[in-house]
Design brief:
Layout lengths: L2 E4 L3 E6 L10 H17 L3 E5 L4 E3 L12 H19 L4 E6 L2 E3 L1 H7 L3 E4 L4 E3 L11 H7 L11 E2 L14 H9 L6 H8 L5 H13 L3 H16 L3
Parallel strand pairs: 2-3, 3-5, 4-6, 5-7, 6-8
Antiparallel strand pairs: 1-2, 8-9
Helix pairs in contact: 1-2, 2-7
Length: 233
Amino acid sequence: MTLAIHRGRVWRVRLDRPQAANALSSELVEALHDALEEAAAARPEALVLEGNSRHFAAGFDLTGLSRESDASLAHRFLRIGSSLERLATAPYLTVAVVEGAAIGAGADLVAACDHRLAGPDARFAFPGARFGVVLGTARLRAITDPAIFLGGDPVTAAAAGRLVTGTPGDLSGILDAWARIDPATRPALLAETRPVHDPDAALAALTRSVIAPGLHDRLTIYRRRVLSARIPQ
């Protein structure tokens, strides 16, 4: 299983690859894409996206990279980009609950949600610039100062600026307050409170970055650097 879904008035969608730190494999990306497509049709009041106590999502899964091609990697990034736009324009309230690490594409999933609740051990990183992929840069700029994350290193919830809007303890209050709002006024309220964003431009920028030749090589170099940084010299 890569995704656990509880469907109801409020959908709870839990990334469920604990053995791989909820890294976004092709299977998990497709499961999330399908779940968001289903939710768009079902139109729950809200959707809560969460991981586990150690990891929200450790970003783009680079295991098995030797078996990938530029085309397969680009396809997965584009499917992630499509999921980000579904979250950002969802016809329901979206809430990310983060405990532990939200890295790369995992952090982009958080940034695409209306409420971004983070526990004291949460940390965020946006390392895409290190391998030349433009995933959620424009969205991040719309909600907080992207300079906070410029180096690509993990940033604590306390230092993450307006990326974090509350704590996990706020979840029930947020959902209760939303339930009391007249359903007829919810779409207008979502449109009013969400940052101005051009999904077509975002997907076009992502497409240009992933179809540039050498995506596999760039990710291979990035992965090698990450692994070497973890090994004491």
